[in-house]
């Protein structure tokens, strides 16, 4: 067999072509790998950005809900406070400042009436009622006397109560069968303070009612006229 010898110039050209082809393959491979790597990185970055945006949107939505709930709570509380104040104002407006000391009665001895029953003229207005009838404070005030012997005014009054009022006057309730308040206690207009009776110098079951300028006996004024002047007829 004969050995074929390649022309040196032809051999050099082949080597150069082969080298060039390898380089082109390497470059093409590197480019493909880079392109593949780029395709993997770009979607990952986009996904992270979208997740951050979604989280921010969720947090903003929750913050808006919390703010709305807080505003609603404040509104509800304000409405409740306003409603309560309105009710109290309405109740205060409706509540009378002065009332009759008993609800159902017959008038008997009147103020300044004379007679053998009294050493001096009658100092109050009598309301004939059965024993045990609820007796109410004619006006709001503070109890300054409460007890037997007229609460200190004398045995003729029997069990008695004296209430001091804000306008500087005093109301007295006498001949009681039961006292239901204590000295120093604050009472409201129309609040039950005792039960009527027949104690002390009494000709029969009734409530003796006085309006005074001081807490003591001897300072009485016409109670019927006083009540009328304050919108209460008897």
Average residue pLDDT = 82
Uncertain stretches of 5 or more adjacent residues: 12-41
Quick one: how many beta strands?
Answer: 10
Q: Sheet with the most strands?
A: 10 strands, antiparallel
Condensed summary:
This protein is an alpha+beta fold. It is 40% helix and 21% strand.
Overall description:
- By secondary structure, this protein is α+β, with helices and mostly antiparallel strands.
- Helices cover 40% and strands 21% of the residues.
- The protein is built from two helices and ten strands.
- The protein has helices spanning 8-94, 223-229; strands at residues 106-107, 125-128, 134-136, 141-147, 159-165, 170-179, 186-187, 192-196, 206-212, 220-221.
- Strands 1, 2, 3, 4, 5, 6, 7, 8, 9 and 10 form a ten-stranded antiparallel beta sheet that branches.
- A hairpin with a 7-residue loop joins β9 (206-212) and β10 (220-221).
- It is rod-shaped and about 115 Å long.
- The termini are far apart.
Spell out the key features of this protein:
10 strands; 2 helices; ten-stranded antiparallel β-sheet; alpha+beta; 21% strand; 234 residues; single chain; 40% helix
Draw up the topology in text.
Elements: H1 8-94, E1 106-107, E2 125-128, E3 134-136, E4 141-147, E5 159-165, E6 170-179, E7 186-187, E8 192-196, E9 206-212, E10 220-221, H2 223-229
């Amino acid at each position: 067999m004969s050995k074929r010898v390649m022309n040196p110039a032809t051999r050099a050209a082949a080597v150069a072509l082969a080298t060039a082809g390898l380089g082109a393959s390497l470059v093409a491979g590197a480019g493909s790998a880079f392109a593949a790597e780029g395709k993997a990185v770009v979607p990952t970055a986009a996904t992270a950005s979208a997740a951050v945006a979604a989280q921010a949107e969720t947090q903003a939505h929750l913050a808006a809900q919390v703010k709305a709930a807080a505003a609603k709570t404040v509104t509800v509380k304000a409405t409740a406070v306003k409603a309560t104040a309105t009710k109290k104002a309405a109740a205060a407006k409706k509540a009378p400042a002065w009332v009759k000391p008993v609800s159902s009665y017959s008038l008997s001895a009147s103020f300044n009436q004379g007679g053998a029953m009294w050493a001096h003229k009658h100092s109050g207005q009598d309301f004939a009622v059965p024993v045990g009838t609820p007796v109410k404070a004619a006006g709001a005030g503070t109890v300054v006397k409460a007890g037997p012997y007229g609460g200190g005014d004398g045995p003729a009054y029997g069990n008695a109560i004296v209430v001091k009022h804000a306008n500087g006057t005093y109301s007295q309730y006498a001949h009681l069968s039961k006292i239901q308040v204590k000295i120093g206690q604050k009472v409201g207009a129309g609040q039950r303070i005792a039960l009527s009776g027949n104690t002390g110098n009494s000709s029969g079951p009734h409530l003796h009612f006085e309006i005074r300028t001081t807490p003591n006996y001897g300072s009485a004024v016409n109670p019927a006229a006083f009540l009328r002047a304050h919108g209460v007829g008897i």
